[in-house]
Structures are given as C-alpha cells and as structure tokens.
Design brief:
Layout (H helix, E strand, L loop, with lengths): L1 H16 L9 H10 L8 E7 L5 E7 L2 H7 L3 E3 L9 E6 L13 E7 L4 E4 L2 E4 L2 H9 L4
C-alpha cells in the first residue's frame, strides 16, 4: 500500500513537471515565441508606433496581434544588419489585465523598416510578405 502510494505520487510529480508553465498559451504565443525566441505566456496586444521627425514615436494603432503573427509565420528569414533603420516599432505585449495570468515575458519591441519591409527583434529578422505588408497598411502603416 505504501509502495503504491509512493509510485502514484512520483508519477503525478513527474507528469506535472513536464507541463507547459503557461496553460493559457495559444497558437499565437507559440508561433511568436518560435519565430523570435521569446518567452510569452500570453500575448494579446500589438501597439504600432511610428517614428516622428523629432525621433520620438507616436502610437498609430492598437490591435490584437493574432492575425499579424499568422502572416509573419509565412514570411522569409532575413539576415540581421545594423543599418536597418526602423521607422516603426511594433510593441507586442501582454495587457495589464492578463499579466496576472502569466509571469513570463510581457513585452517585446519588433523594429520595422517599411522601405525594406524588414521586421527585427534583437538579431532575428524577417522580410514581410506582400499579404503582411497589406495587413500592416490596413492597420496604420504607410
């Protein structure tokens, strides 16, 4: 009886240790984490900011990132170059309301060069597909 109890206890412990730390993680977070090597548990907000002439950034749009990330997964990898001069910042984040459900990464800024159609987060870069560029235009990018 004691051996059976120990066996069941150990089995439950092993199974619970192998679970994803964020049971809320959807396909959106899985794709984004895979593409940019991030650690989001919940990713439910995308704030698009445009660089102004004075160097500051102004918010253009706030949207759900799900559709954009689906399009991003169809984009081609691009090599990282320091000279990519971002004219937009795409702030992917966990909304304040959802942060209580996820203690993992809550924010990532992806730089976007709208002339060369390159998105970069740290050294991971992608060339935006035509469909993604259209999506970005529909959501405030010129």
């Amino acid at each position: 009886m004691v051996i059976r109890f120990l066996f069941v206890s150990c089995t439950l412990l092993i199974l619970s240790a192998c679970q994803d730390p964020s049971p809320l993680r959807s396909e959106t977070e899985v794709k984004f984490n895979s593409l940019f090597k991030t650690e989001f548990g919940v990713l439910d907000q995308l704030i698009i900011k445009k660089r102004l002439e004075n160097g500051n950034y102004d918010t253009v749009s706030v949207i759900n990132p799900q559709e954009m990330i689906a399009e991003l997964s169809n984009s081609q990898k691009a090599s990282y170059k320091d000279e990519y001069n971002a004219d937009y910042k795409l702030l992917f984040k966990t909304s304040t309301e959802m942060q209580k459900y996820s203690k993992e990464q809550t924010e990532a800024i992806v730089n976007y060069n709208s002339t060369q159609h390159i998105l970069c987060y740290k050294s991971k870069c992608y060339r935006a597909s035509e469909k993604m560029r259209n999506f970005l235009k529909e959501n405030g990018l010129e």
